[in-house]
Write a structure and sequence with these properties.
Elements lengths: L7 H11 L5 E6 L2 E6 L2 H10 L27 H11 L5 H5 L2 H21 L4 E2 H18 L12 H11 L3 H13 L1 H7 L6 H20 L7 H14 L11 H32 L1 H17 L15 H13 L6 E4 L4 E2 L6 E2 L4 E4 L1 H5 L18 H6 L18 H18 E4 L24 E6 L3
Parallel strand pairs: 2-7
Antiparallel strand pairs: 1-2, 3-9, 4-7, 5-6, 8-9
Keywords: Endoplasmic reticulum, Heme, Iron, Membrane, Metal-binding, Microsome, Monooxygenase, Oxidoreductase
Pfam family, one: p450
Membrane topology: Peripheral membrane protein
Amino acid sequence: MMVGLERQIQLFDRIYHRFPETKICGFYQMRIPYLMIRDPELINTILIKDFSHFVDHGIDIDESVNIMGRSLFLTNGQKWKIMRQKLSPGFTSVKLRGTYEQIQECTDQLLNYINENSKQKTGGIEVNKIIKNLTIDVIGTCAFGMKLNTINGENNVNFNKYVNKLLKPNGKLLFFQYLLGMLFPKVIKFLKIQTIDVDATNFFRSVFREVIDYRTEHNVDRNDIAQTLMKARNDLVRNNESTDGENYCELDIIANAMLFFAAGTETVAAIASYCLYELAINTDIQARLRAEITSSKIKQGGQIDINNAFLKDLHYAEMVINETLRKYSLFATLMRKATQNYDVPGESLTIEKGQKITIPLYSIHHDPKYYPNPDTFDPERFTEEEKSKRPNGTFLPFGDGPRHCIGKRLAELELKSIISKILLKFEILPCEKTEIPLTFKTERGMITSKNGVWLSFKTIEN
């Protein structure tokens, strides 16, 4: 796996299936011992009921050499808890309702792009790339009040460049840093070896500073994520309101601004692309989904507006999206670390403080025990009846418990909007470049398609 000869999911899947009757099994990654939690009931207990024993993700990132170590995803303990409390208000349903108009505007630009380019590019369109441009625009406008117009290629060079540097660092350098970190973790800290691009850090720091200065000077108070970050900055950095003994600085806020850009672009783009791909090769599912979307639009007076419950009416769309999230698990595992000794319920086993555990997301999402014929794309798995048959802990695309993905609601809102508007205007078809099935990269990190997701679009005449 480390030299790129095997995908992460293949390694962890082998371990998962080697011990089919056990709740917990163990393995070493270099010198570090891990416990793999296989049992859904125990997974659910660890993530929710006994979360206080497993607060930390257990991904060791030195914040002095990687600014993302200060982000919500990688911070630990009380510092994570305080920052989560400060940032959560920016992702409530009420707050996100105000973003729909911006999402709709960006999606309309995407539709125009597809319409123009589908006429010119008879060989198809690589949809992951164009939807990633859309998601950059969405995060730019909804989170930071910036009109980037990335879809149309305007003012996007720097954002594309530095978002890519955050998400896709130099492969050889990343491998060297990972290997060194596994064998000699103190060396990276001692030598101050940077594990994230300095230019990208400086770029996002400059952008967020401009947003702060402009809003302060012009007394702008928008109901968005940037305002939530600014309030956290005011409370924790400027006024030092924290009572947890932690010292917060500007970099703690910048790191989370960077996290929202990185996490809010690549992941949504990937899932939307895989969903469109499955709709293209499963025309019956595409037709049924389009019928639901059309019916909901008529029911709501011909308007696509979150305030009139259009998106909430799309139950089959939720099933399709959930099945995409299941089949195309973006990450092989979910990580946790014991923050105190934990006696495993019903077992004569104590997980000691500091022990790292891994929850095999991909393997569980593809286990025939929970999902028969797991390689088949079947949204019917997510009817209320079918969901009630499966134990908790078997569907975790956003994690679960207090440390679930903070951007879950925004991601779901974007996905429904993108898919609904595309299906109302276009029939999605395979093209000559479409891979069936898709092949995937062997790199560490997020699971991505090797050759892109190529599709063609045929305008539907109303």
